[in-house]
Amino acid sequence: MAEGSVSVAEVETCFQKFAVHGDTKATGKELNGKNFAKLCKDCHIIDGKNVTTTDVDIVFSKVKAKSVRVITFEQFNQALTELAPKRFKGKSKEEALQQLYGLIVGKEPSNVGITRVAKAAAVDRLTDTTKYTGSHKERFDDSGKGKGKAGREDIPDTSGYVSAYKGSGSYDEKVKEA
């Protein structure tokens, strides 16, 4: 492989960042198919015309060993060597690979499209304790903080007797009388 403007170490750094992305147990030595596809997408190797997600999946399956679901950095380089001429048509293999490396270097897994907490007006309206009415209003103090158990009027009686039993606490007296 012709050494160009990009060092293999820089590409390997990027490989490691994607290898550990979304996997707490990952060592950074191997890349799974999902993260390989993500790398290709985030680094714009997949352009939708020359290289599609299908191409990336096929190349991944081709370079990985039969029984495993991950590729090493060496296999990753093989995969890039196969994708490069597709992505940069009309260039020599080395040139295309260098340009592909250029796309990858310095990139990190982007977190675009990650679900954020939606702060909708409806949620604000529903959780505004100043607008509560009736018995619900009693459950919050003036600052809007919940009073917890103290805010409830009907605190359950756990004395062991049937609820609202009039003769509670009179058992001992009855026993003495007998």
Provide a concise account of the structure shown.
The protein contains eight helices and two strands. It is mainly α and 178 residues long.
Order of helix and strand elements from N to C terminus = HEHHEHHHHH
Oligomer: single chain
Radius of gyration: 33 Å
Q: Beta-strand percentage?
A: under 5%
Overall outline = elongated
Which regions are unreliable across 5 or more consecutive residues at pLDDT < 50? none
Give the N-terminus to C-terminus distance in angstroms. Answer: 104 Å
- CATH architecture assignment of the largest domain: Orthogonal Bundle
DSSP strand count:
2
| Contiguous helical run count | 8
Major beta sheet, specifics?
Answer: 2 strands, antiparallel
The CATH topology of the largest domain is: Recoverin, domain 1
**Could you name the CATH class of the largest domain?**
Mainly Alpha
- CATH homologous superfamily assignment of the largest domain: EF-hand
Mean pLDDT: 81
Please tell me the total number of domains. Answer: 2
Helix content: 40-55%
Describe this structure in words.
- This protein has two domains: 8-104, EF-hand (Recoverin, domain 1); 115-153, no CATH class.
- The chain is 44% helix and 2% strand.
- It contains eight helices and two strands.
- The protein has helices at residues 8-20, 33-42, 53-63, 73-87, 93-104, 121-126, 134-137, 171-177; strands spanning 31-32, 70-71.
- The chain has a two-stranded antiparallel sheet with strand order 1-2.
- Helix 2 (33-42) packs across helix 3, helix 3 (53-63) runs antiparallel to helix 4 (73-87) and helix 4 (73-87) crosses helix 5 (93-104).
- It is elongated and about 105 Å long.
- 19% of the residues are buried.
